[in-house]
Every structure is written in C-alpha cells, then in structure tokens.
C-alpha cells in the first residue's frame, strides 16, 4: 500500500469508527492495525454478543466498497461463544472459531 493510500484508508476507517460509535451499542472495540511494510491489515473487534456482530455486518455495508479499494478480505478469526445464527452467517467465508477455555484480562 502506498503512503497516500494509507492516509486515505485512515480517513475511511475514522469515518467508519465514528459511524459505529454512534450506531452500535454492542461494539466494545474496533481497532485497525497495519504491518510495518503496509501489506497486511488486521482489525481487532470486540462485541457484547453475537447479535451485535451480526448488526455490525449489516451496519458496515455502506463502507465496504470504499474499504475494498485498499484491502482484500482474507480471513476471519472468531474468539468466544458464537451463536448458531452467527456461525451460519460466517460459514461461507474463511473463518476459524476459537472457544475460550481460560481467561486473564486485566483490562476490565
């Protein structure tokens, strides 16, 4: 990704984050990261439950084409308990699901 593309991506992401902040009560975290060589983007998202994730999938759609100019979706990793409805919704994409067996989170 070129430097000017990174700044354009940052603009779109900031607009998306503002939109999500105003419309998604169930979203707790939405952090975007880029690798040092600007070839890989990782997004860390945390939600209160599966319904909030599915709401985000629909709520995010108006930004999808703009984000698609800068990145290609490769995979999804889901951590924690996912409802059957969410599991069915993500079934068609490259998803790995991880169920928690233990937690130590000092951020709370």
UniProtKB/TrEMBL annotation:
Query: What SUPFAM superfamilies does the annotation carry?
Result: Dimeric alpha+beta barrel
Taking every annotated instance into account, which residue ranges of this chain make up the domain ABM? 6-59
Pfam family for this entry, one:
ABM
Taxonomically, which superkingdom? Bacteria
Q: What is this protein called?
A: ABM domain-containing protein
What is the native source organism of this protein?
Microscilla marina ATCC 23134
């Amino acid at each position: 990704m070129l430097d000017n593309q990174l700044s354009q991506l940052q603009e779109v992401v900031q607009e998306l984050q503002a939109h999500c902040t105003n419309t998604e009560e169930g979203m707790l975290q939405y952090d975007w990261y880029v690798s040092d060589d600007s070839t890989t983007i990782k997004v860390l998202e945390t939600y209160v439950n599966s319904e909030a994730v599915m709401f985000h999938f629909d709520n995010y759609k108006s930004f999808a084409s703009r984000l698609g100019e800068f990145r290609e979706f490769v995979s999804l990793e889901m951590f924690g308990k996912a409802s059957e409805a969410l599991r069915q919704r993500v079934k068609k994409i490259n998803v790995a699901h991880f169920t928690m067996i233990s937690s130590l989170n000092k951020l709370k």
